[in-house]
Every structure is written in structure tokens, then in C-alpha cells.
Specification:
This protein is of the alpha+beta class. It contains three helices and three strands. It has a three-stranded antiparallel β-sheet with strand order 1-3-2, covered by helices on one side. Strand 2 and strand 3 form a beta hairpin. The N and C termini lie far apart (29 Å).
Length: 71
């Protein structure tokens, strides 16, 4: 499989959410400031706004992995 490291948002933007609706979306976000409020930080990202606009909710954060669930 080709690597899409750092291209999570670009890959998601290429997905037709009217045709495909994954139950979960997992994103690697390596630039999370460990001293910041993680939820506030994630909510300020473009990928969060993208997922939320398509009916996904932030479900979990594990180290550098952010998981969204279809609402």
C-alpha cells in the first residue's frame, strides 16, 4: 500500500461521503502539544471541522491517534 503519511485530510477530502460512510475514522496527528488542552487543540484543527461537518464526533484520543465516530 502506498504511504499517505501526513496526508490524512487530503485523503479524506477525496472520499465521497455520500457513497462511502465509514463507521470510524482514525487520524494520526503528530503535532499535538502534550502541554495543551488536547480536546481544545483538536477542536481547533481543520480535520476536526471537516469530520464534524460530515456528521462525525470526536470519540477518543490515544497518543497521536484521533478517532472519530459516525453520529
Amino acid at each position: 500500500f502506498p504511504s499517505h503519511e501526513g496526508s490524512d485530510l487530503a485523503v479524506l477530502k477525496g472520499l465521497d461521503f455520500n457513497r462511502f460512510r465509514p463507521s470510524y475514522i482514525c487520524i494520526e496527528q503528530w503535532d499535538i502539544d502534550k502541554n495543551a488542552n488536547i480536546c481544545s487543540y483538536i477542536e481547533s484543527t481543520e480535520i476536526f471541522r471537516f469530520a464534524e461537518a460530515r456528521g462525525y464526533v470526536l470519540t477518543a484520543v490515544f497518543a497521536s491517534t484521533i478517532i472519530f465516530r459516525a453520529a
